[in-house]
């Protein structure tokens, strides 16, 4: 990979990586740091990364760094494993996006990450498995479980309108 390829990667992928990270951790400063760390790692491995696989490399790096930051924050706050609420969301809202974002925050980090990669970034199951180092079957299971939880949490759409 050349310096020109690196600069092109920054121009092409920085926004998408930032959106992905921000959607997972909801902290702009930490998201910027993770994106910067990802591009720094790419720079350090410039000669060993294939220019054709730079997008996958960046998302994999950002994904793993995001998981590290989430785990570090959890340890610092000494939070117990949180249990997903079994009851749905039954109060009346007119903003489906707000309810959906609240529900996504409650998902376990692995489910949230693969769901974001699939539904928000548009990656295929195979690409997600490469990024997250999970098997393709496990990616499908996590996405299915996340969608079932979101469906149960949101409840009937007529409650939202």
TrEMBL record:
Keyword Transcription: yes
Lineage: superkingdom: Bacteria
Keyword entries, A-Z: DNA-binding, Sigma factor, Transcription, Transcription regulation
RNA polymerase sigma-70 region domain residues: 10-75
InterPro entries: RNA_pol_sigma-70-like, RNA_pol_sigma-70_dom, RNA_pol_sigma70_r2, RNA_pol_sigma70_r4_t2, RNA_pol_sigma_r2, RNA_pol_sigma_r3/r4-like, WH-like_DNA-bd_sf
Family statement: Belongs to the sigma-70 factor family. ECF subfamily.
The name this protein goes by in its record: RNA polymerase subunit sigma-24
Record organism: Sunxiuqinia dokdonensis
């Amino acid at each position: 990979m050349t310096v020109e390829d690196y600069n092109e990667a920054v121009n092409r992928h920085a926004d998408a990586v930032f959106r992905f990270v921000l959607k997972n951790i909801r902290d702009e400063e930490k998201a910027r740091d993770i994106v910067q760390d990802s591009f720094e790692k790419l720079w350090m491995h410039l000669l060993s990364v294939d220019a054709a696989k730079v997008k996958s490399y960046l998302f994999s790096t950002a994904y793993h760094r995001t998981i590290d930051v989430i785990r570090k924050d959890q340890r610092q706050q000494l939070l117990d494993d949180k249990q997903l609420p079994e009851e749905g969301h039954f109060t009346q809202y007119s903003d489906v996006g707000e309810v959906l974002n609240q529900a996504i925050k409650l998902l376990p980090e692995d489910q949230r990450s693969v769901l974001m990669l699939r539904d928000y970034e548009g990656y295929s199951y195979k690409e997600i498995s490469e990024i997250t180092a999970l098997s393709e079957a496990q990616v499908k299971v996590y996405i299915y479980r996340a969608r079932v939880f979101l469906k149960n949490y949101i409840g009937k759409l007529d409650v939202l309108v």
